[in-house]
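Field reference: sequence -> structure
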Amino acid sequence: MTLPGVADFERVVLPHLDAAYNLARWLVGDATLAQDVVQDAVMRALSYFGSFRGGDARAWLLRIVRNTAYTALAARQRGGTASLDAMWRDGEATALQVHDPADDPEAALARSENVAQLDQALAALPLELRECLVLRELQELSYKEISHVTGVPIGTVMSRLWRARQLLMRNPVEGGET
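Structure field:
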C-alpha cells in the first residue's frame, strides 16, 4: 500500500537527486555529510509535498537542500564533529579511489589535479558566492531559479556570480598558474 502522493513525489522530485547531492556536497564540503543532508532534505520534501503547487521541482528541492545544508553546517560548528571522509582525506582512503580504466595514467593524473584545483578554488570562496556559482555553472540554473533557491533578489544573484568569478580569476590556486 502506498501513501497518496508518493508516486507523484517519485515522478516529480526524485529525478533531481543528483542535483541535490551536488549542491549539498559543494555547500558542506563533505561527501558523507552531503548524503545525510540530501536524505534529510528528501524526507522534508516528502512531508511538505502536499504544499508543492507545481512549478520548478528542481528549484523547490534545491531550496530545501540549501536550508538543510545550512542547518547541518550550523550544528556541525556547534558540535565540532568531523566525518570519516574528512579524517581519511589524506590517509589510506585515497589509495582506495579507482580511476576510470579508459584513461591512461597521465590523463587520469591531469584530470584529478584539475578536479582538486577546482575543489580548492571553490572551497576558498565565501559560502554565499560559492552556492551561487555552483547553482549557475554546475547545476545550470537560471538567475531566476537561483533567486528562488537562495531567497535573494536576482540582482544579488548576479552580483554574487560576478564577485565569485572575479575572485576565481584573481586568486589562482596554489600550484596552478602564476
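Note: The radius of gyration is 18 Å.
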